UniProtKB/TrEMBL annotation:
It comes from Sphingomonas prati. This is ADP-heptose:LPS heptosyltransferase. Keywords: Glycosyltransferase, Transferase. GO terms for molecular function: ADP-heptose-lipopolysaccharide heptosyltransferase activity. One of its GO terms (biological process) is lipopolysaccharide core region biosynthetic process. It comes from the Bacteria. GO terms for cellular component: cytosol.
Amino acid sequence: MLLDGIRICCVALDRGTHVPGSDRLSRHVFNVWVDFGDLTSGRHDLELRFFDDDDTASVRTHHERVVVATPLDEATFANSDAVLHLPPGDGPLETRVAARPTMVRPARRPPLLQPPRAVLVQRMDQLGDLAISVPALLRLRALFPDARIVGLVTPANADLARTMTVFDDIVVAEFPDGTGAGHRVMTLTDQIALRDRLAGFAFEIAIDLSESSASRALLPLSGAPFLYGFGSGEFRYLTAQVEGYTHDRSNRHETVPHGLKLVALVEWLATLLGDHAVVVRRPELDRARLGTFGIGEAERYVVLHDGARLPFARWQHYADLATMVQAETGLRVVLITDGSAHDADDGIVRIGGRIPFDDFDALLSFCDAFVGNDSGPKHLAALRGVPVISLHMARTNWGEWGQEGRGVILSRKVPCAGCLIAQDPGLCGKQFACITDIAPREVLAALQDILGASLGCANAGANLS
């Protein structure tokens, strides 16, 4: 791999796998981590050269014009496993990344959104568009009673905006229909001027109430860190986006007033302000069920569960962890495995395969803590109010699928976080370092912290619903 003609890395490809349906094609996967921190931001020429081991004179090349962006600040993006800075040092990046400690984050994370001091609301269209927005704007004012709400409007609806007490200030900007373009336009000069006008408000949230995408690109001009509007994932610069449709089944057109969709947009914003985790216990679930597994009536224990729907999401060190937990906490250990369980004279309760749901529920509901992968059982344990230590691989964001409630979520920061590999483990190229590099000692330390906080307040038998 060369950047601006200078070699920046050289890696050997794997032997490849056969592509089904082809006699000649094979697939090679390479996941290359490169530190661009010392490069000048801007445009660069990237060249990939592929050499055949059997014919070194034969070279295939691929050229791309790429942009190296200004490095993101890890402290600003502390919750992202994809943003990491490495101190200067020698050795492969893989070794330096692996040397970083595993991230341990509380499962009860703060709301995505805090009550703001300044909010920008865009209605960069017509009189009627602002008129039907009034119910949503009133709901927004009720949601943020102490915020300074500023309306960004056009000359077409500015007079109406001035009569509305929901706005503390209004900013008027031209946003005309483009000639023959079919959408509204704003020149670069006008965009810079608008950005400068908005900068003094120090907005924390900027909202576009237009369902049309025409004005969405104006939101970043607000300077707000939280950008919000309608969308189904296509606006990557938005912090949050939502869509909702109703249909007349005969002609597929909308059936509810457009203003109602605007209220729904604000209501979805309201859900981001709070913690909606719940604890639901089963009062009728009898702890005596644990006797089937040799667990005494008052005996305290920890459950380890090694299963997950995706085989490559299964951390491989549960057997070692079970031995460490029993030796260093003094609590009984129940190891539930998707495979077969073998008996051993070490005091660890091993359960293999599928057991009746009520037995499984009881094992989770009455334990002192649960340790598991990104799986259904960890969410069930969290629902029952049990402290959960979950091991989350970085294929998806820990904040999305980490459990809610008590406990912690362990994950690794890796450059390829967010890969979304769903079925084919051959697509990784890094042997799933985001899960395999979590050390048993790190998991034990997280568990000991949880147990230290919960000793003396066991939840066994409590009805926490």
